[in-house]
Design a protein that fits this description.
about 600 residues, Rossmann fold, two-stranded antiparallel sheet, about 55% helix
């Protein structure tokens, strides 16, 4: 039982693998490439036809035949391909349309066009105005055939009706959007060559060109009918497109149209056979490889192009040229947006807001200029341009946020650095206003030079407030610290003058300074008036001159100088006497009187 179960599972997997890996063996037959959806309003791709096209590696050109249903499109294609009805496109004689969607002949014709080996596919389209279809569906078929093909054969029986001209509204709009770009060296997208094919035995003394020109002539509209105005606009546009269209007449091949598939060339009207040959030559002369965005399309690229176009045409209720323009401009828009982003990405942030705005304007102008040079479409391109502008604005918003963040980081780091510097200056070993002011000025200058961007104004206020508070606090403690330092200094000099260098003048000067500071100032000056006294100002000036100057900073070098002085005194004490005797010192503490040493009286 278990063995049979696994055999069953293996069989199912084998069936799926075989079906998934199946491919077309015979390409000498027609394949559907586009089929109607169940509602018969939109289109969907058929993988069989796409496989027939994808295998082609050379540039591709497509010839599509459009027209009303039951107008002989499939038979005409078989004639152009020299195929019988049995082996070529299916030909129907019933009231319903035989071809559904768009079909392609699986074996392309290989031709040489201006030195380029080109594979030419022939496309059969579902006829217009058949029973059970909406006008929107017909519009989508017509639009897709117009965009896909390099040559668009408009197959019309007998004459040109107003409805036939109205059908060309999409082709006209498409040509107006794209045709202007074809004439330059950089060919972006070339609309299909329009071939008016009138199947009629007699033209009543007119050439087919005269017949088309007459049909495209303005119709009087004294009543102001909007429909007539719309058709007249199409007529005007088709007249402007004269160099992109041509006309040809083809007589009926035989009176018995239902028997055409059973007839040989010898049974057909000789004039028809002759004109059919001329039509083949005409089609061959106007075929060009399909060019999109400046390059030839091979099979896989053509299929990808077809998928994009079909997605665009299926959007919304009706197919629009605007949606096609968006598809063509999508890649260009992305490249221009990338160009803008790269230019903005090279900026060294943070930077001043005005400089950033100027850089944005320059980068935006460069991107918009690139878009103007490359974009598709004339009228509908504005939407893509607006979209590019909006996306650049979004990128610019992110750049602004990044600039603000970087500016905040930089200014915060400089603010913290200045704050730490002020804290260090508050606790100088030797308090000096000159050094404090120099440090404050240096901090302020470095902040002004290095802090840039939108956060500078805010941090400028903060740092000025912080520097002001730091200076007020320093000044408040400066006089008291200096007073204490002078008292300590006087006591130190008393010790040095009495016990180390034994120089009574130094000791006396130190005692005078100590008594002045501790006695006289307290007796005759208040604590507030002391710091405003000229004598105190003189002391402060002398202190500032000694302690700090651009050449010597005693706050940094006091300890090394003191150590060197101590070493010098030690040297003199130890080796000076031995070399010079006791006379090298002043004789105030070492004077000999009457040959005897008298101890110094206190």
């Amino acid at each position: 039982m278990e063995i049979s179960y696994w055999i069953f599972v293996f069989s199912i997997l084998l069936v799926f693998w075989v079906s998934g890996s199946s491919s077309i063996d015979n390409f000498h037959q027609p394949f559907p490439i586009v089929e109607p959806d169940p509602g018969h309003t939109k289109l969907r791709l058929s993988r069989e036809g796409l496989e027939a096209i994808s295998r082609i590696t050379t540039p591709i050109s497509a010839v599509a035949v459009i027209g009303p249903y039951r107008s002989g499109k499939s038979f005409l294609l078989n004639q152009l391909l020299s195929l019988s009805c049995d082996e070529g496109f299916g030909v129907g004689h019933m009231r319903d349309t035989k071809t559904k969607g768009i079909w392609v002949w699986g074996t392309p014709l290989e031709v040489d066009i201006d030195g380029v080996r080109t594979s030419v596919f022939y496309l059969d389209t579902e006829g217009f105005e058949s029973v059970g279809k909406s006008n929107v569906y017909d519009d989508r078929i017509f639009a897709l055939a117009t965009v896909m093909s390099s040559v668009l054969i408009y197959n019309l029986p007998e004459t040109i009706r107003e409805a036939d001209i109205s059908r060309l509204s999409f082709a006209v709009e498409l040509a107006e959007e794209f045709y202007g770009r074809v004439k330059g060296q950089d060919i972006a997208f070339e609309p299909a060559k329009l071939l008016w094919l009138i199947q009629r035995d007699f033209l009543q003394g007119k050439s087919v060109k005269e017949m088309v020109d007459e049909a495209l002539r303005h119709v009087p509209n004294s009543d102001g009918d909007k429909n007539i105005d719309q058709v007249n606009q199409i007529r005007d546009s088709l007249a402007v497109m004269g160099d992109n269209s041509t006309a040809f007449s083809l007589p009926q091949p035989h009176l018995m149209r239902t028997k055409l598939c059973d007839l040989k060339d010898d049974d057909l009207d000789p004039m028809y056979v002759k004109k059919r040959g001329q039509l083949k030559e005409l089609v061959a002369s106007i075929i060009r490889p399909k060019i999109v965005q400046g390059k030839y399309l091979n099979g896989k690229e053509f299929v990808s192009f077809l998928e994009q176009i079909l997605d665009a045409l299926n959007k919304g209720e009706i197919p629009s040229t605007g949606s096609l323009v968006e598809v063509f401009n999508k890649g260009i828009l992305e490249r221009c947006l990338k160009l803008y982003s790269e230019r903005m990405g090279k900026l060294r942030l943070p930077m001043p807001e005005q400089s950033l705005q100027d850089a944005h304007e320059r980068s935006r102008e460069e991107a918009m200029k690139a878009f103007e040079e490359q974009h598709f479409g004339r009228h509908h391109a504005k939407k893509s341009a607006d979209q590019l502008d909006e996306e650049m604005k979004e990128v610019f918003k992110n750049v602004i946020m990044t600039n603000e963040y970087q500016s905040t980081r930089l200014c915060e780091a400089l603010y913290t650095q200045c704050e730490d510097r002020m804290d260090q200056l508050q606790v100088l070993r030797l308090p000096t206003m000159a050094k404090f002011d120099a440090g404050l000025q240096q901090c302020n200058q470095s902040f002004e030079q290095e802090c840039v961007g939108p956060s500078k104004a805010n941090y400028e206020q903060r740092i000025m407030k912080m520097l002001g508070k730091s200076r007020s606090l320093f000044i408040k403690e400066y006089n008291q610290r200096l007073f204490n330092w002078l008292v300590a200094f006087s006591l130190v000099m008393v010790v040095i003058g009495r016990f180390i260098i034994k120089f009574i003048l130094v000791e006396m000067a130190a005692w005078i300074l100590f008594i002045f500071l501790e006695t006289y100032t307290r007796m005759f000056w208040s604590a507030e008036s002391l710091y405003y006294n000229p004598v105190w100002h003189f002391i402060v000036s002398a202190w500032e001159t000694i302690v700090y100057s651009p050449i010597l900073d005693l706050d940094r070098w006091a300890i090394p100088i003191a150590c060197m002085a101590a070493l010098g005194i030690l040297y003199c004490r130890c080796y000076g006497r031995r070399k010079h005797g006791s006379q090298w010192l002043l004789p105030l503490y070492n004077h000999q009187k009457g040959g005897s040493n008298r101890p110094r009286s206190d």
